[in-house]
Design goal:
This protein is of the alpha/beta class. It folds into two domains: 3-86 and 344-452, Alpha-Beta Complex (Aspartate Aminotransferase, domain 1); 89-340, Type I PLP-dependent aspartate aminotransferase-like (Major domain) (Aspartate Aminotransferase, domain 2). The chain has helices at 3-12, 14-26, 28-36, 89-101, 110-122, 135-150, 193-199, 209-216, 239-252, 271-276, 302-305, 327-368, 402-414, 433-452; strands at 56-60, 63-66, 71-74, 128-132, 154-158, 171-173, 184-186, 200-203, 221-226, 255-259, 282-285, 296-300, 374-378, 381-385, 417-418, 424-426. The strands form four sheets. It has a seven-stranded mixed sheet with strand order 4-12-11-10-9-5-8, sandwiched between helices. A four-stranded mixed sheet has the order 1-2-3-15. Strands 13-14-16 form a three-stranded antiparallel sheet. Strand 13 and strand 14 form a beta hairpin.
Length: 456
């Protein structure tokens, strides 16, 4: 649909205008907060933007309440880490007790070692663990230790990947480059060309040409980083590709790192490593480790992780941070990981079952109504794509349905379901089957609103 025609249909569409009036009428306090936020250079990252601005006041279970008192079913789940739901009671009680004892010491606390042992038990590759504050810090640190251990410089990532917000992670595939030999391109300004040219390379996802590129660059390639399930393309049919990737990395003497910041403790208790039965050299983790509290972790083989201490003759590398291992995050992590471990036999099959049901019903509805849309999913992780053609990797994505997609999320918010600007969505242990029914109904109604306004 041409841009001018799409905008006209949005402006003329009775459903689009009705939902805008509805949201404006019921969010006057959010509008006031929006006015106060003008001092901020950037209020939120673009991935957090909503089709209509609301500001959250509280959250519990699978629901958020905004500053105007409106309640929504949330599919953000803190961008994935809230596997137990929002504000889980066990984590809340543990953190409240820790607040009575102190929230920042600087020197180590006993919880660090206890939580490290739980991560070791959950992570197949995690013979040793180092904590940091975010998933971004975890991938940055893992890249550094890979370079230290191997003595090589380059790190490879895949097109369609997301590994955080540091300079190395913001080298993505140039979509104008050859599909099977993608060139790297910086995401935004401020990233020196030397990062792109000398330290990073991009591989084609789900394409055997990646293996030839790894062999070709084996003498300079320290590590290959991959989301074992990509957040931009969530799917579980990746086992063969991952096994072949591990074999090629071993052959080329490059470390393999699974970035499990999103998949860790969500796909399974042991993440994708457990789900596929594949053990890489390193794994990175993020906020799911502590039910949404600021935390990150690098786990890996004993041999590689010696670089953090320089023991056993390993090359020493610097790693540290004032809040790494802070008592609040460690305490939250202990409570969250303990509950996930105790509930894992029932929790993960439930998340897989409800995730499959949600995706299957939405995809059947789209097929039956001839909507050019598909809900990609890996268990309880979802990404709705407004195209009917087959998607193998990010290079298959089109923007043909961008106007319908933009309006869809406005309607979905009007029907009481939140999915933020990144359009990556999750369900949690707190989502009941009835909540999933309500989500499915809201999605179907949003699609029908678009059709009646002529956008689909």
């Amino acid at each position: 649909m041409q841009e001018a025609e799409a905008k006209r249909r949005i402006l003329d569409g009775k459903h689009s205008q009705a939902v805008r009036r509805k949201l404006i009428a019921r969010t006057p306090r959010s509008a006031e907060v929006r006015g106060l936020s003008e001092t901020l250079s950037q209020e939120v990252a673009q991935t957090v933007e909503l089709p209509h601005p609301i500001y959250v006041d509280s959250a519990e279970g699978c629901r958020m309440t905004d500053v105007d008192g409106n309640t929504y079913i949330d599919m953000t789940m803190g961008f994935g880490p809230c596997v137990l739901g929002l504000r889980p009671p066990a984590v809340l009680a543990a953190v409240q007790a820790q607040l009575e004892r102190g929230w920042h010491f600087g020197i180590p606390n006993r919880q660090q070692a206890e939580l490290a042992r739980l991560v070791e038990q959950a992570s197949p590759c995690g013979e040793r663990v180092v904590f940091c504050n975010t998933g971004t810090e975890a991938t940055l640190t893992a890249m550094r230790v890979a370079r230290a251990f191997t003595g090589k410089t380059k790190v490879a990532v895949f097109d369609g990947c997301y590994h955080g917000a540091h300079d190395y992670a913001l080298i993505h595939a140039d979509l104008q480059s050859e599909r099977s030999r993608p060139a790297g391109k910086a995401v935004g300004a401020g990233i020196p060309d030397v990062i792109r040219n000398a330290t990073m390379m991009v591989l084609p996802y789900r394409d055997d040409a990646a293996f030839d590129l790894i062999r070709e660059h084996r003498d300079e390639l320290a590590a290959v980083f991959i989301e074992p399930v990509q957040s931009s393309n969530p799917r579980l049919d990746c086992e063969d590709f991952l096994r072949n990737l591990l074999a090629v990395c071993r052959e080329s003497e490059a470390l393999l790192c699974f970035d499990e910041v999103i998949t860790g403790f969500r796909i399974a208790f042991g993440g994708c490593q457990e789900h596929y039965g594949i053990t890489p050299d390193l794994a990175t983790y993020g906020k799911a480790l502590a039910a949404g509290f600021p935390i990150g972790a690098v786990a890996g083989s004993r041999e590689v992780m010696r670089c953090f201490s320089g023991s056993g003759g390993a090359p020493w590398m610097f790693s540290g941070g004032t809040f790494s291992g802070n008592p609040l995050s460690m305490t939250a992590g202990l409570a969250a990981m303990t509950e996930l471990r105790e509930r894992k036999d029932a929790l993960y099959p439930y998340l897989m079952e409800q995730g499959d049901r949600l995706a299957n019903e939405v995809n059947r509805f789209c097929r039956d109504n001839q909507f050019a849309a598909q809900l990609l999913h890996a268990g309880s992780t979802f990404h709705l794509r407004f195209q009917g053609s087959r998607i193998n990797s990010s290079r298959d994505l089109t923007d043909d349905g961008k106007w319908a997609e933009k309006e869809f999320y406005l309607h979905l918010l009007g029907h009481g379901v939140i999915i933020p600007g990144i359009h990556l969505a999750f369900i949690s242990a707190a989502h009941t089957p009835e909540d999933v029914d309500a989500i499915i109904d809201a999605i179907k109604r949003s699609f029908m609103d678009l059709r009646e306004d002529g956008l689909l």
